[in-house]
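Trying the structure run again after the queue cleared.
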Amino acid sequence: MKLGIISHCTIDTIVFNDIEYDVAGGPACYCAFTAKNQKFDVDIYTKFGPDFPLRDKLDNFNILTEDPLSQQMTTKFKILLDGAERRLFVQEKCEEIEFVENKTDGLIISPVFDEISLDVYNKIKNTSDFIMLDPQGFLRKKTADNEILLENSKIDLSKISAIKTNSDEIKALTGFVGDEAMNFLQKQGIEHVILTDKQNISLLVKDKIYSINLPKLKLYDTTGIGDIFCSTFCCTMLKERDFLWALCFAGGAAQAAIENKKIGLEKIPQKGAIENNGSYFYNMVKFRTI
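Done. Tokens:
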């Protein structure tokens, strides 16, 4: 099976415990390598500059679509981490991603900042039957000092199969919070609505909210955890066609990535760790009717 991912590759300067780490990443990389660990073929729709250090690795895994190289520098962020909280500053922005006609079994749309035009967004939604959206990049604005903040935004959610948001993003997207916000997104036609609130993860399907709770762990680098979650959810849905297993495996992947205490892409978990954690969560799922 083949998973497509549309997002910028990035170079991130992660500041954690007063130490700076320069690592390559972005949803394109986190989602792609997570999917490869789950034996998926992967296509990335992306752009990066000549300074991006992982092109050979992406080529070796055969996960690049045509013409990803830009003459502009790779999108770069500075990320200040403080537990589950973080501040984000954009330092470079690569050119927009062009549309590529390429059919996939599933597609993750996960912009980081201003790289997917509405025209490309609308076109690419027609290239797959299962579309998962992480809307964070559509909701971001840049301040005068280049800090990234959220702003209220409306997005065309037609043809979206699943969406993953956190508490701040869902409020910016809908104007509501909690169950009301999840209901709002469901009424736009999204079958699987995921809301993450630190270690609490909820999934709305039809008239029920299913929830799992990640254990309280000491947090290290949390960059890319949401991307690992999305990729695992999408891969499991495509393979198993079971939203409960998808929720549990995605939560298991997030837990495994946090537990290994690694920086950057090194935190991406192996398939065995995902399945072990996911099996535990499957027996611990709670649900309620709304």
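The longest strand covers residues 75-82. Worth checking whether this holds up in the mutant runs.
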